Amino acid sequence: MLTLAFDTATDVATSALVDEGTVLGERVSVPRSLLADVDALLRDAGVGPFDLAALVVGTGPGSFTSTRIGLAAARGLVLALGLPVAGVSTLDALAASRDGAYPVIDARRGEVFVRGPEARRPDEVEVAGKLCVGSGAVRYRELLEAAGAEIPPDDDPRHLPRAALHAGLAEAYGAVEEIQPVYVREPDAKPREA
Predict the structure, then answer these.
(1) Are 35 and 57 part of one and the same domain?
(2) How do the pLDDT tens digits run along the chain, 194 residues long?
(3) Residue 48 resides in a domain
């Protein structure tokens, strides 16, 4: 089953084209480049959009805007191509990078997203003896290492919510309306009062 997967919840967007567990291509960029990345993946594999059998999208948590970019792109592609879709937590994809990996995503505002999912201050997260991966682990490296965490080098691919891992974690495919973002907290932007 030819599957397109992507995650834009963090500052780094990942996308992959996977066929029956074999990764045909993978890209890493920024969320606003997602559709260009998808086009390049399809072209490089010599396939077109109508060859796709399914789509997998990262549901967050992460940046509100970045998460919305991925979900909006998924909605458009699924509706246009008539594909089944599955949503996979960005935290779960990070955790799948290695057995025992503990995902920590930068939530900004002095917080990190961790499993639960929940937003917590980095000094409140119990990390002793854990392999911490993700943008939050990189940003709060000094604090987390002082608390006993092991953190790979900043450029280690385990810090990326790799889309190929999303494809492998997808379980149930369904309608796009069933895919819900994982925001954890309210967005920073508020509507203007009339």
Answers:
(1) yes
(2) 999 999 999 999 999 999 999 999 999 999 999 999 999 999 999 999 999 999 999 999 999 999 999 999 999 999 999 999 999 999 999 999 999 999 999 999 999 999 999 999 999 999 999 999 999 999 999 999 999 999 999 999 999 999 999 999 998 899 888 899 999 987 666 778 87
(3) yes
* Adjacency order of strands within the sheet including 118-120: 105-108, 111-114, 118-120
124 in a domain, yes or no? Answer: yes
What is the DSSP annotation of the chain? Answer: -EEEEEE-SSSSEEEEEEETTEEEEEEEE-GGGHHHHHHHHHHHHT--GGG--EEEEE--SS-HHHHHHHHHHHHHHHHHHT--EEEE-HHHHHHTTSTTEEE-EEEETTEEEETTTEEE-GGGS--TT-EEESHHHHHTHHHHHHTT-B---TT-GGGS--HHHHHHH----B-GGG-----SS--S--PPP-
55, 93, 104, 180 alpha-carbon torsion, rounded to 10° = 40
Residue 118's nearest CA partner among 138, 104, 100, 134 is: 104
On whether residue 22 sits in a domain, the answer given is: yes
Say if pTM beats, i.e. exceeds, 0.85: yes
**Pairing of β 2-7 and β 13-19:** antiparallel
Domain that holds residue 71: 2-91+160-178
